[in-house]
């Protein structure tokens, strides 16, 4: 193995390093690896053990909120999907087209959308134009949605009222429930580790991004139940090897499901709608078993 952990402060020729520079140097190429410490991440001046403690504090609190959301969603038969991707992969376009396609199918299942972005309410406005209710969450400097934000936004959606207004007979607490789409902040890194209480993460990768993305951003694809390969209408103009991309995704997550889709041409939309509606029906079946 060429990789060799280097106690960086032991290197007299590099004055920038100090005791907490947890870097692993490939002595042959000079490549640097900052993710091989216990914390899998490096913060300047902070030890690995302190980094782990900080992360546990922050994520532990988030996980409590996420557990509360998840319990609430399951109880009320809300099928919650967390859509994650890099900026511009087509999340909002897909959501608008999905809402329209559900209407055309005559689906009576109520839908709600939470839109995460650093700034602007553009995406919530696009969703509202379809007639579906949406709450925009602006994260400011934040690079992801967290479970508390989602709980807060959900309580402002009519879906929440549906859930509580519906018949309160045994096994009927959620009535017909609903589908909650959460569009996360466009970012293939940070949203991977923040549980929102969703039933599934859906990673959207557009074919213009290159087939290697599942290997470069493995956490996101490992966390996702489904990968949607979007913009397949553009394949004739690109060098993108679909099979290679799927192989890469399966390498980081052997159980990941894959759908090829074009939000703009409508190709693959039917299979996607089936996937959503099956997921929602599956929740109802779970609820009946539990009742
Ligand atoms: N050709 C093609 N273009 C698409 C498709 N889906 C989305 N687009 C285009 O991709 C661009 C970005 O789409 P958005 O839906 O805004 O992407 P997004 O993921 O919501 O972006 P952020 O919210 O900023 O992260 C727009 O110009 C869309 O028209 C598709 O299936 N095919
Ligand atoms: Mg968007």
UniProtKB/TrEMBL annotation:
Membrane-spanning residues: none
Domain (CobW/HypB/UreG nucleotide-binding): residue spans on this chain: 82-259
Region spans: Disordered: 1-20
Top-level taxon in the UniProt lineage: Bacteria
GO molecular function: GTP binding; GTPase activity; nickel cation binding; zinc ion binding
Keyword annotations: GTP-binding, Hydrolase, Metal-binding, Nickel, Nucleotide-binding, Zinc
CDD domains in UniProt: HypB (cd05390)
Signal peptide per UniProt: none
Protein name per Swiss-Prot or TrEMBL: Hydrogenase maturation factor HypB
